[in-house]
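Margin note from the TA: students keep mixing up input and output lines. Inputs are the sequences; the output is the structure of the whole complex. Example:
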Amino acid sequence: MAKEKKVEQITDMEVDFAQWYTDICRKAELVEYASVKGFTILRPYGYAIWENMQRIMDGEFKKTGHQNVAMPVLIPESLLKKEGELVNGFAPECAWVTQGGSEELEERLAFRPTSETMFCDHWSRVLHSYRELPMLYNQWCSVIRWEKTTRPFLRSREFWWQEGHTIHETAEEAMAETEQQLNCYADFYEKVLAIPVVKGRKTEKEKFAGAEATYTVECMMKDHKALQGATSHYFGDKFSRAYGVTFTGRDNKLQYPFQTSWGSTTRMIGAVIMAHGDNNGLVLPPQIAPIQVIILPVAQHKPGVLEAASALKERLAAAGLRVQMDDSDNSMGWKCAQYEMKGVPLRVEIGPRDIENGQCVLVRRNDGEKTVIRLAELEEAAKAQLELVQKGLYEKAKINLEEHCWPAFSVEEAKKLQEEKGGFIKTMWCGDVACEQKMKEEAGMSSRCLPFEQEKLSDVCACCGRPAGKMIFWGVAY
Amino acid sequence: MAKEKKVEQITDMEVDFAQWYTDICRKAELVEYASVKGFTILRPYGYAIWENMQRIMDGEFKKTGHQNVAMPVLIPESLLKKEGELVNGFAPECAWVTQGGSEELEERLAFRPTSETMFCDHWSRVLHSYRELPMLYNQWCSVIRWEKTTRPFLRSREFWWQEGHTIHETAEEAMAETEQQLNCYADFYEKVLAIPVVKGRKTEKEKFAGAEATYTVECMMKDHKALQGATSHYFGDKFSRAYGVTFTGRDNKLQYPFQTSWGSTTRMIGAVIMAHGDNNGLVLPPQIAPIQVIILPVAQHKPGVLEAASALKERLAAAGLRVQMDDSDNSMGWKCAQYEMKGVPLRVEIGPRDIENGQCVLVRRNDGEKTVIRLAELEEAAKAQLELVQKGLYEKAKINLEEHCWPAFSVEEAKKLQEEKGGFIKTMWCGDVACEQKMKEEAGMSSRCLPFEQEKLSDVCACCGRPAGKMIFWGVAY
């Protein structure tokens, strides 16, 4: 007998987007709050999404010769302080270890907020010759930044990420690495997460503390707010000099290597929720979905139904898909709602009549489209439907992005567009941080990036009217 | 022209085993010391070994239904203190965060030394019904224990590990899980790491703080010292009660679940070094070797050699092996020594004469055995040789273990055997901790375990002469 279990409701995104987001995080069982303020727990379903992201990204990093390492999690304050800009940027939000066992430490140790300093310290001891370059390292770990306000995935005191750190013989090679990794992130967002991005350079004000240049992939969420997707930094030889990282060059002289770093975090899960989710819950792009296909037997007590459903499961698993069957005694309505909440991209239904007709029903999560297929074509059809989910998600997100980019020619107009329509506001900009500050104060927007794809909207800065040669994107960001 | 590069020498293990060990850790580029006292860096080669271990173990854990999660790294002192034995065991070696950003924290936070407390805290909030049990969780992370003396992999203030944490409806199910995971570790040691183990139960004195029972796999190193390989703990409902973890049982009453935890760490890399290494360096079991086959072209400047060597590489890679070719201008002697140091299980040499004869040479790392094979049988032969490496390593380690287990009937005799022959000393034991203390003080040995495979050596305790029904293993442990 079917047990009637209540389907958990979430807030509609049109009513309260922030609450809708938090509801999904909890109801889809992605995260839980921990008893430590500002810290979160990644639950099995949330962590499985992260594992899929990790596996795909790690594979891409390795294809281009990167190797994983593990650096110590604690950084002595003196080491952190060697590069002035970095420490100014991160020291105010470090967690500090001051006691080890029963001893008070002579020097306090920061829980890593980022590991440039540790990598440089290591390289200063192991690098000798240009022959050892480049060193292309990456690590998967958690970092702490003592944020005041936190939200699951988007901003939490501890978050999980990868941080790539590389050193190169020449500035050109380091710049090429910075670009390559930015493109790696852009591809991951567009081809795996189905989220279109705007690639560009951060302003001096918004760049990473200590970097010479920061590049970013910026995405747009369903509420038309901006989200910084991932960043790639070029450091020149600034850190090398600060930390005494040297090598003997081809000319037999001591030289400083050129450095990059690049990072992406569990906030990508937040991006997926807000780029694709709907009022029924999460919608996952197939490649990162812990369950790609859920099989629901219809009238499962009838003879032959469970066997037929199990057979479909076996076939899809053998075809390399992540598939599960739910033959619990919950109602069909509850099951459908449950797997919609969890964002499973494809649902397969099979009941007595389907079996009779040698068919089953495939239902796409993203648009609810149903397709009746012959059982013989199951594997092919399921894969084709998953591709359609991927394509559908990307196209919808692309339209959302394209329809929410507005040119503006004054701060006032920019403000009005943001308030009335939302999205990215594009203007010309003179390059002065004062104008950036003005946009922030008067229109509530931060600069998102100077897009690589430039347009000439006018000759003058929207903020001050002085000559301007660059177009910049503004937005209200997460 | 071949550049003569000096082959780095390591200390012979017969001269100074500890120095030999440290030399391998450094010269095989597994680890580096960090500038933070007691902390180490896992370098690419060392980390790649860990990644292979992780991938294999993680696959095994998932086969039995375990799911990965991520818990916060910082634990409030009050939470840590809820279970008295655990806090007594771990508080003295915790690293404490006392400042977050610019604020002094009201309560200090421990960097996790182990996460039972966080898992229990989480379960106390998410567990409701017996239908949700068991919860089979695992996490891969680093932990800190503020050790006074440290050695790479074996004892360091930060180390990397997995910690499994599960809760079950009944005590029987939790006990079965504890055993299953102990067997999982034993299989990993024996079938993957090629290290035979002794399975058994820890004494009350040596068990995990707060556990009802701790089970262990104990290994023997080449210097005949013991190394605790991994442990699996049964907690009963002790932590559930302390942390208020409850569920509604089948009888509709509130009940406490039964709990286990089990862990294995990067010390497994230390175990591999000391179980298989020799005076030429590391010797890696094939399944965890970052490079399983190294191809060295002989007289590589001669026409056709590099092409032939590359072809072998492509074929072995296509056959699923992790293979590299070294066509650098270093000398053949240097290359051989280098890949021996790094423990690459199989070397393939191919030169002009081999090409003429349609053959190549396979050299096993563990025993230096050379086999000339037909090029046509390369894939099959390489795989067969790797299996022989695995088998050879296991058999040699098994003999080392079996030939260094000595029965003793008094503390004095035990002491003498340990000093003269080393290894595991087995005696009958009455179960009294005073006798354990005596063996420690007078013979310098700790109890390793009460092996599952018992023998009856006599009727009385070797320490006190009182009646004794159990055989125990003693050893000098890492």
